[in-house]
Amino acid sequence: MPWTALAYMSTMMYLESTSAAFGPAGPAWPFPLSFMNDLKALAKSEDLWNLFLPGLRQDEPGQGLSNLDYAPVAEIMGRVEWASEAFNCSAPDTGNMELLHLFATPEQSERWLKPLLEQIPLSPGHIQRGRRSLRIRLG
User: Fold this and answer.
1) Minimum mean pLDDT among 4-8, 80-84, 87-91: which range?
2) Which residues touch 25 (CB under 8 Å, ≥6 apart)?
3) Is 25 within a domain?
4) What angle do CA 44, 46, 52 make, to 5 degrees?
5) Which residues, 6 or more positions from 128, have their beta carbon under 8 angstroms from its beta carbon?
6) What was the pLDDT predicted at 57?
7) Distances from the Cα of 15 to the Cαs of 6, 9, 19, 20, 83, in angstroms?
């Protein structure tokens, strides 16, 4: 897995991070990044999705890597500031997904976890993207 992520990073992320689209200003990237949805689609199609979450069920998208297996992948992703988002491994969604995966009721999982795992936009008031926070009561 780390080598697959490294190959993906080498061919896609590094090229985008050094492209002329960023201009001479360097890391003052415009957000949201215009190419992020394309990178997400490619990562998902290559099964490089939700890498951080161990214990995924068969019906949940992602690798389900252990923390030990995820550590070198996280290091590789950390080389480009915005790379973890392309793999659906960026904060604060990761923390929200971990908590929901461990403690949510089936109804809460269906309502909040499933859209986060799939990166499906939620209705307003559930999760605010950008400066996000999950506002539900678990249990």
Assistant:
1) 4-8
2) none
3) no
4) 60
5) none
6) 85
7) 13, 8, 6, 10, 12
Q: Are residues 68 and 96 in the same domain?
A: no
pLDDT number for residue 132? 44
Single-letter residue type at 129: R
Q: How many structural domains comprise the chain?
A: 2
Instruction: Judge if pTM exceeds 0.85.
Output: no
Decide which of 31 and 23 is more confident: 31
Using an 8 Å Cβ cutoff, are 104 and 110 in contact?
Answer: no
Do 131 and 52 form a contact (C-beta atoms < 8 A)?
A: no
The reply to whether 37 falls in a domain is yes
As a whole number of angstroms, the distance between CA 138 and CA 13 comes to: 36
Q: Is 57 buried (19+), middle (13-18) or exposed (0-12) by CB count in 10 A?
A: exposed
In a domain, 26, yes or no: no
- CA 111, CA 81: separation in Å to the nearest integer? 30
10 Å CB burial of residue 83 (0-12, 13-18, 19+) is: buried
Q: Are residues 59 and 7 in the same domain?
A: yes
What domain range includes position 105?
Answer: 91-139
